[in-house]
Design a protein that fits this description.
The chain has a two-stranded antiparallel ribbon. It has a two-stranded antiparallel sheet with strand order 3-4. The chain has one helix and eight strands, in the order ββαββββββ. It has one domain: Phosphorylase Kinase, domain 1 (2-Layer Sandwich), CATH 3.30.200. It starts with a strand and ends in a 5-residue tail after the last strand. With 95 residues, it is of the alpha+beta class. It comes from Pararge aegeria aegeria.
Length: 95
């Protein structure tokens, strides 16, 4: 039987929602990981309301053909250090 989370649905429902949010906003393995495989924990204590820890499974070096840390920009040779809507700063280059 599914464990109930305070007026928020079951753990399975919350896991599905978390998986959908991650799939919509993150790149790489997040696009194809199954929500049942996610490392999913509710963070409690203090003044936290509903905060969840969501991570890829530790054995997810490649899921769905994506590297764990890949992104659409992965083939770009420049690595931005700081990005903003108005400018990008790159790492200093040795002269």
């Amino acid at each position: 039987m599914a464990k109930k989370l305070q007026m928020c649905g079951t753990e399975e429902e919350m896991r599905e929602v978390a998986g959908r949010i991650c799939r919509n906003y993150l790149h790489g393995a997040w696009k194809s990981v199954d929500p049942t495989d996610l490392d999913f924990k509710r963070i409690s204590g203090g003044l936290s309301n509903f905060i969840y820890y969501v991570a890829l499974p530790s054995d997810a070096s490649k899921i769905g053909g994506y590297a764990r840390d890949s992104s659409p920009e992965a083939d770009d040779t420049r690595k931005p250090v700081l990005s903003s809507h108005s400018f990008t700063m790159d790492e200093p280059k040795k002269v």
